[in-house]
Design a protein that fits this description.
The protein has 343 residues and is mainly alpha-helical. The protein has helices at residues 4-40, 48-55, 63-96, 108-121, 128-149, 156-180, 183-194, 205-221, 223-230, 233-238, 243-265, 271-283, 290-310, 318-340. It contains 14 helices and no strands. The chain starts with a helix and ends with a helix. It has a single domain (15-340), classed as Orthogonal Bundle (ABC transporter involved in vitamin B12 uptake, BtuC), CATH 1.10.3470.
Amino acid sequence: MITKEHSFLREGYSKRRRRMVIVTMGLLLLTLILSITMLLYGNTRYSVDTVVHVLLGKDIKGATFAIGSVRLPRMLIGLLVGMAFGMAGNTFQTILRNPLASPDIIGVTSGASVAAVYCILMLKLSGNIVSIVSLVAGIAVAILIYLLSGRGSFSGGRLILVGIGMQAMLSSVISFLLLRANQYDVAGAMRWLSGSLNGAQMKNVPRLVYVVLGIGSILLILTRHLHILELGEEYAIALGLNTNQTRVILIVCSVFLVAFATAVTGPIAFVAFLAGPIAKKLIGAGNPSVIAAALVGASLVLGADLIGQFAFSTRFPVGVITGIVGAPYLIILLISMNKRGVA
């Protein structure tokens, strides 16, 4: 027999479920619109028919190069790195139950950045080797942060504090490298540090697809475990979850997403930091937010790149625009947390 209480709970669950589906579909539509806009607009505006013909393999003078070799790689890489940053940031913030626990706040992206800047400025390297070194460095820094914060029982607050300290130290190392470098090489390093899609190449797309789809699938499978961890260590253990093993798997997956995305485009500021909170606000508490965070991250990158290209007389890298949006949010968040006495 179904009681009024059961009926009320079922109705509430159905409402939350509908909200999640509607918001996710809306985010998917927004991402699709932004993706199409990136293919249509540039120095020359092309019609939808022209874009479709080029994508189907038809050779159209001027359009084939502009769309197939410039705009399409830029759109695909922006889409994929946005999804990577969004999923990684959401996972970190959920595990550690703190909106400050974003990879770009706790030093993971800075590890990749230091390695890339050193390769560009000191070793005069470029291309894939820089991406590989920055990927390895990002993962290594994440492991170091975890080890330094893992003495005794796990503490999310301790990990965040260690990460913020690591971020400050690595930022100082980057400044030192920029000061010591030849001024003619600094411009290239600064372009990478600003987070940009200008160097997007189709050869990077397949690897990003494999990483985003592969690791994204793992995060989706572990969504239930992720939400159990969000309840706290005691509740998770009481529910029979192997917290250490689950946490390590989730953190490794998130770090790999961030490090790989950063290696391709540079550290696009605040996307990982903003995507999770925006997604959770939109879909509501208690709903799985991995897909929504991925779509929010993709929309932020694509939208910011369009603004950076066409909203001003000077073209700005995507990381500059996301930084302008994210910095005030960080300040507001810190003030809010201080008022509420959140650690």
